[in-house]
Amino acid sequence: MFGTNYNLIDSTMALNHNHKVLSAISIFLLASFLCTSITNQDISVVAQSTPSDALNNNITDTANENSTVFATGSALSRLAPDRVLLSVGVETTDKTANDALSLNSGLMNNIISELRSAGLKPNETSTTFFNIFPLYNYTEGGTRLNVTGFTVTNTLQIESSNLDNVSQWVDTAVASGANSINSIDFSVTEKKLEDTRTKLITDAIDNAKQKAEAAASAVQLSITGVKSIVVDGSTISPPPPPQPFYRDSISAQGGTSASSTPIIAGEQEVSVTVSGIFSMG
C-alpha cells in the first residue's frame, strides 16, 4: 500500500516537472519569435526607404543626361570669281570647203595673234570645237538637192585668272574677225572654295550652337556637350552668265569701239549647312 502511494507521488512530481519544462520552452520560443519578428520589421523599413531615394536620384540624373536638342546652322559667303572661261568663235561660208576653210583659218590665226599681243598667254588658249559641213538646196517637199556651199566653224576657248583683261580680249577678238562670243563664265577656283568652305563649316556650327543654347535656356537648362555634328553640304550659286554675243557678218567689223565692252564678273554665293545634336543639363 505504501509502495503504491510512493509511485503515484513520483509520477505526479514527474508530470509537474515536465509541464514546467514545456512551459519554459514555450515561453522561450515565443520570446525568440517575437524578437525575430520585431527585428525583421525594422530591417524591412530601412531596406524599403533607402533604395527609393536612390532610385529617384538616379531617374533625375538620367533624365538630365538624356536631354538633347537638335539644331541646324548655316553660314554664307560671297566670293569674287578668280577664273574666267571665254569662248570665241569664227564661222565662215564659201562655195567650196577649201575656200571656207582658208577664210576661217586666216581669221582665227589673226585673232590668236592679236590676243597674244593683248597679253593672252599660249597656255591659256585651246581649240574646243571645229567643224566643216555642207549646205544644200531643198525642194518644197524637203528633198535634198545639190550642195550650194560649205560652212566652217572654229571655236577657241580662253581660260585665265586675269579677269582684268576680259573686256579687252572680247574687243580684240571681235575686231580681229570673231563673229561669235559663245559664252563667258566666271568661277572660283577649287582651292579658294575649299578654304572658304572650311571657314563656313566653323561658322555654321557656331550658328547651330547658338540656336541650341537659346532652346536650352527656354527650358531652364544649358548646353553641356555635343553628341554629333553632320555637315549637310555646301552650295554654290554662280552669277548668271552674260548673254552670247553674235555679229551679223564679218563685213560689219570695224575698229575698236570708243568704249570697251562692259564685262562684270559679279559674285558667287557659297553656303554651308550643318546639323547637330547637343546635350543639355
Describe this structure in words.
This protein is of the alpha+beta class and 281 residues long. 44% of the residues lie in helices and 33% in strands. It has helices spanning 2-65, 97-117, 166-175, 190-218; strands spanning 68-79, 83-94, 125-138, 144-160, 180-187, 223-237, 245-246, 268-280. The strands form 2 sheets. It has a 5-stranded antiparallel β-sheet. Strands 1-8-6 form a 3-stranded antiparallel β-sheet. A hairpin with a 5-residue loop joins β3 (125-138) and β4 (144-160). It starts with a helix and ends with a strand.
Q: TL;DR of this structure?
A:
The protein is built from 4 helices and 8 strands; from the N terminus they run H-E-E-H-E-E-H-E-H-E-E-E.
Output the keywords.
281 residues, 3-stranded antiparallel sheet, 4 helices, 44% helix, 33% strand, disordered N terminus
Overall residue-averaged pLDDT value: 77
Given the C-alpha coordinates, what overall shape results?
Answer: elongated
**Major beta-sheet overview:** 5 strands, antiparallel
* Uncertain stretches of 5 or more adjacent residues: 1-22, 25-63, 243-257
* Count of extended strands: 8
Helix count equals 4
User: Distance N terminus to C terminus?
Assistant: 100 Å
Order of helices and strands: HEEHEEHEHEEE
Share of residues in strands: 25-35%
How much helicity do the residues have? Answer: 40-55%
Structural class: alpha+beta
Radius of gyration: 49 Å
For the largest sheet, list the strands in their spatial order.
3-4-2-5-7
